[in-house]
Design brief:
- The complex is a heterodimer of chains A (338) and B (453).
- Chain A is mainly alpha-helical and 338 residues long.
- Chain A folds into 2 domains: 7-45, no CATH class; 84-331, MetI-like (MetI-like fold, Orthogonal Bundle), CATH 1.10.3720.
- Chain A is 72% helix and 0% strand.
- Chain A contains 17 helices and no strands.
- Chain B has 453 residues and is an alpha/beta fold.
- Chain B contains 20 helices and 15 strands.
- In chain B, the strands form 5 sheets. Chain B has a 5-stranded mixed β-sheet, sandwiched between helices. In chain B, strands 8-10-7-11 form a 4-stranded mixed β-sheet.
- Chain B has 2 domains: 2-147 and 336-374, Periplasmic binding protein-like II (D-Maltodextrin-Binding Protein, domain 2), CATH 3.40.190.10; 158-332 and 407-452, 3-Layer(aba) Sandwich (D-Maltodextrin-Binding Protein, domain 2), CATH 3.40.190.10.
- In chain B, a hairpin with a 2-residue loop joins strand 4 (141-142) and strand 5.
- The model of chain B has no long low-confidence stretch (mean pLDDT 91).
- In chain B, helix 1 (2-22) packs parallel to helix 2, helix 2 (44-62) crosses helix 15 (347-357) and helix 11 crosses helix 20.
- Classes of the chains: A mainly alpha (338), B alpha/beta (453).
- Chains A and B meet through loops of A and helix 3, helix 12 and helix 19 of B.
């Protein structure tokens, strides 16, 4: 503070009365301190209203037995109505292992084959061909993401339909003599769960990876060619190491995204066709909290499933950050520190 | 959406037109009617109120009552769970409909929560309700009071495919005699599975398509639980009941059907894209469905093949067979009912409107269009009702009908018992494990509110 006052004087401004100067300095200081919060306030308000408060409510709800029957009657906000019963029910559920196994399989397969794997392959291919062609292909691949999810999933349902209506059966499988024209969502539900989610999911990584690859200075790739590196060697030893950060981001973000996504599965199989056959954790939370043929939606129980999922997500994020050495990745390049 | 707006527009136009003519010294009361209805078959559930409002306004004017009603009709075909949730949430926001059409089994939970009113006292001033078949009032009664007015009923019969039975070598006479044999208890559930297995073995239907029930949780399964001697309600205490012995037989039947008799392949399918095309497309030999589906198949799935005429040639209808030789065949009726919100400011007007739509003309209109059974005494004698072949031929099923219980805990009970059923069909549980799962689940969820026998 002293230094700052001195600086003002040094710049030749007339000395202000002590009281006024103190007030001005105080106001200026206060304004300086508040300015960042003022800029942050819209975000803070939105995050508080639409994320933090709902999160706290879901957390509290998870300890209650609030459901459709006692809504408006049960005072769920009072600790006297809180218990761990919902969590006990979850961890003693006979189908817990199946739902957890489905979730792990869904996230791992979709992530490995599509959201990271296929995204990387497409990004690499489209950045190693004619620029305009690569751009056009990526644009086409992006279409499912900008198509309304219901329309997109209903198209897949139509594709998987039984012969003679189903396109895949009619034009591919039946002419080739494969299968009996069965409803493919009934016979191979997981294949379609992976495909439907994967084709959308891959577009996200594709865009990020392609941008990262294109931002690598051409000098590096040209130098590797001059040194006699093959295309694969250039990709393996030059390009991939330089897109570690996008790889970490896409893997982490898409893991968390897949853990919480259920809308495509809900529209495609709704967790079936067999009992919990394609039911993942987030879909169970939705089913328990918001759907029931006879209307017995259990908001408290569903909230408990959601809270466990949040905890799983946080644990996964921490593991990723440690495995990928996040700190090292965000460190300033050593060349800049010199 | 367009349909909804159109309906609302028509309703507003008709009623407001009447109001203008009535002059300025009147008070307009808006009554919102919410119906779940599959278009176009079930549209009369809501549309009947347009005429009802007109008639009621004439009555009010004649009686010197300054009130005039304006009805707002909201109807669509959303899932039952969403439909109930919508009512509960809108009730708390004080934006719920005044008249809410729903399945009778929801009465218990809504009555307990105080969201609907008992109608006994009000109904005394509306003698038109005396024409409703007496036994149907049982389905809308809870704790000794009436909470809803029946709107329609149905039978949930066993359908069979005559053409496929013919392929198995059944003669026309044998096929024609099947409903009678089932009614007399001479053709049991396991007899049906045996025929289903034969059809699968001979390649008449695909494996899994011998016998189907609905593809997801719902009332139909309870009829088979009853067939094996199961009970759902204790009359003395009003508590839900689960019978372990009957439950074991019930789950054994579905286990056998799926694992041994090439049946139950329809469980888990989507309604529109697989289940309806499967049964109406002659891919399934036996299936349990509802009478209202007859209209759906004729209108939406088989119109090009000749609609009802084709269906009478191809499909047969019978009661759900008995579990044992000489036992009683059954069916299940799940009446829909108009309920009135406890926050409705003019429940007398709401009930008057309901009385208007509970007459022979309005109800028959709906019954024929949707192939639901009528709810009025001697409705079968009504000329236009009599003309419907399906309604006439299934009428006898009401003599064998069963109901779901009106209990606030029916939702969790149904979910648990259905999960066990899906598990035995999928081969995840043995029948004994299914019973243990149900008993454990019911006791954990409902505690003292369920009786295990």
């Amino acid at each position: 503070m002293k230094r700052r006052t001195k600086k003002i004087g040094e710049r030749g401004k007339p000395p202000l009365p002590v009281l006024l100067g103190t007030r001005n300095i105080g106001f200026s200081r206060m304004r300086g301190q508040l300015a960042p919060y003022a800029f942050l306030s819209p975000t803070l308000i939105l995050v508080t209203l639409f994320f933090f408060i709902p999160l706290v409510m879901v957390f509290i709800l998870s300890f209650t037995k609030l459901d459709m029957t006692n809504f408006g009657i049960l005072e769920w906000w009072k600790p006297v109505n809180w218990s761990l019963d919902n969590y006990v029910k979850i961890f003693t559920n006979r189908f817990l292992s199946r739902i957890l196994g489905n979730t792990i399989m869904y996230v791992a397969v979709t992530l490995a084959l599509f959201n990271v794997g296929m995204a990387l392959v497409i990004a690499l291919i489209t950045t190693h061909i004619k620029r305009r062609t690569g751009f056009a292909f990526r644009t086409l691949w992006f279409l499912p993401r900008i198509t309304p999810v219901v329309v997109y999933t209903m198209m897949w349902r139509a594709l998987a339909g039984p012969a003679p209506m189903g396109v895949i059966n009619k034009y591919f499988l039946v002419p080739l003599g494969i299968g009996g024209g069965e409803y493919l969502l009934h016979t191979h539900p997981w294949v379609f769960v992976f495909l439907v989610n994967g084709f959308i999911g891959a577009s996200f990584g594709m865009i990020l990876f392609a941008s990262a690859i294109e931002s690598i200075p051409k000098d590096y790739t040209i130098a590797s060619r001059v040194d006699g590196a093959s295309t694969w060697q250039t990709i393996r030893y030059v390009e991939l190491p330089m897109i570690k950060w996008p790889l970490l981001f896409v893997t982490t973000y898409q893991t968390l995204s897949l853990l919480t996504s259920f809308e495509q599965i809900m529209l495609l199989t709704d967790g079936g066709p067999g009992l919990y056959q394609t039911e993942v954790w987030s879909l169970t939370a939705y089913h328990r909290a918001l759907t029931s043929y006879f209307g017995n939606t259990q908001w408290g129980y569903g909230a408990a499933w959601a809270v466990v999922l949040v905890i799983i997500g946080i644990v996964m994020a921490v593991i990723y950050l440690r495995v990928f050495k996040f700190r090292e990745l965000v460190e300033e390049p050593k060349i800049d520190q010199l | 959406m367009k349909r909804l707006f159109l309906l609302m527009l028509i309703a507003c136009f008709v009623v407001s037109g009447g109001l203008i003519a009535l002059g300025q010294d009147t008070e307009t009361v808006t009554i919102t009617v919410r119906c779940r209805a599959k278009p176009p078959m079930e549209d009369w559930r809501g549309n009947n109120f347009i005429g009802a409002a007109k008639g009621l306004n004439t009555d009010l004017e004649a009686a010197g009552d300054p009130r005039r009603v304006e009805v707002v009709i909201i109807q669509d075909n959303i899932d039952w769970g969403d439909y109930v949730t919508e009512f509960v949430l809108s009730y708390v926001a004080n934006e719920e409909p005044d008249i809410w059409l729903t399945g009778h089994e929801y009465i218990g939970v809504q009555a307990e929560a105080g969201r609907i009113i008992a109608l006994d006292a009000l109904m005394k001033e509306f003698p038109g309700f005396n024409s409703v078949i007496d036994s149907l009032w049982n389905s809308t009664s809870y704790k000794g009071e009436i909470w809803g007015v029946p709107q329609d009923a149905e039978a949930r019969p066993l359908y069979f495919n005559k053409a496929l039975l013919g392929e198995l070598g059944w003669t026309a006479n044998e096929i024609a005699a099947l409903p009678d044999k089932i009614e007399k208890g001479e053709f049991t559930l396991y007899d049906m599975l045996t025929v289903a297995k034969e059809a699968v073995d001979k390649g008449v239907v695909a494996d899994g398509n011998g016998f189907w029930m609905r593809p997801s949780n719902g009332p139909d399964f309870t009829a088979l639980y009853y067939a094996f001697g199961g009970e759902t309600i204790d009359v003395a205490t009003g508590k839900l009941v689960f019978n372990e012995v009957a439950g074991l037989d019930y789950y054994q039947f579905f286990y056998d059907a799926a694992q041994t008799y090439g049946s139950m392949g329809g469980l888990g399918l989507g309604w529109g894209d697989a289940w309806h095309p499967g049964v109406s497309g002659s891919k399934v030999l036996f299936w349990v469905g509802g009478t209202w589906q007859w209209a759906e198949w004729a209108e939406l799935f088989l119109k090009d093949l000749g609609g009802e005429a084709y269906m009478w040639e191809t499909f047969g209808i019978a009661l759900i067979p008995a579990a044992e030789q000489g036992g009683e065949a059954n069916s299940l009726t799940h009446p829909m009912a108009y309920l009135i919100s406890s926050q409705c400011e003019d429940p007398d007007l709401a009930l008057a409107l309901i009385e208007y739509v509970t007459d022979y003309g309005s109800n028959t209109r709906h019954a024929i269009a949707s192939t639901h059974l009528g709810i009025l005494k001697e409705q079968t004698e009504y000329k236009f009702y009599k003309d419907s072949r399906l309604l006439s031929e299934t009428l006898y099923m009401l003599d064998y009908t069963t109901f779901l219980p009106n209990n606030p805990y029916w939702g969790p009970y149904s979910t648990i018992t259905y999960e066990a059923l899906a598990a035995v069909v999928g081969g995840d549980f043995t029948p004994q494990e299914a019973v243990e799962f149900v008993v454990d689940g019911l006791q954990r969820e409902l505690g003292d509110d369920v009786i295990i026998r």
